Amino acid sequence: MNYRDKPELRERLAAEYALGTLRGRARERLRSWLRDDAELAREVAAWEARLAPMAQAVEPVTPPARIWAGVERQLGGAAHKPFSFWKTLGLIASGAAAALLGSMEAFPPRYPELRLPILLQQGTADALVDIAGTRQLETGAVNATVTTHYYDGLYHEIFNEPEQAAVIADTIAWLDSVMADA
Description:
Elements: H1 7-19, H2 24-36, H3 38-57, H4 65-74, H5 84-100, E1 118-123, H6 131-140, E2 146-151, H7 164-181
Parallel strand pairs: 1-2
Helix pairs in contact: 1-3, 2-3, 3-5
């Protein structure tokens, strides 16, 4: 399939990827295209930014117990907590990051003023945010406790990747350590 010269197809694929409705091999194929196609990555990011406010506007709904029982059966009987909070957090963080991009040029000289704990998480295949900026913040925030995790091969939306469990585990571990120090 040649998606490059079909703007409507590109737009639909970007939207489905951002929504999380693109599954299986189609999602994996799009992920591989994102590595080499910065314009497609920008289209996905634009959809993520458009959708982020909707995640904030929707009240969480607890599914019936029979639904959770079915999910647990499919997962091998292990009790799992829903990741809706983390996906929402990821969308909010993406939206906040997009909003901050405009002011980032004035920010590096002020890195030494930062005093709060900082968690930096970035996919190494992120085509939207240059990893050099993350490294600059990591080394420039000399008065803050900075924890950094780089996820090999992951893209911009690290909380929506198949490896999200590792990203979430790192986030929880960081939150636990910050709260223990508080």
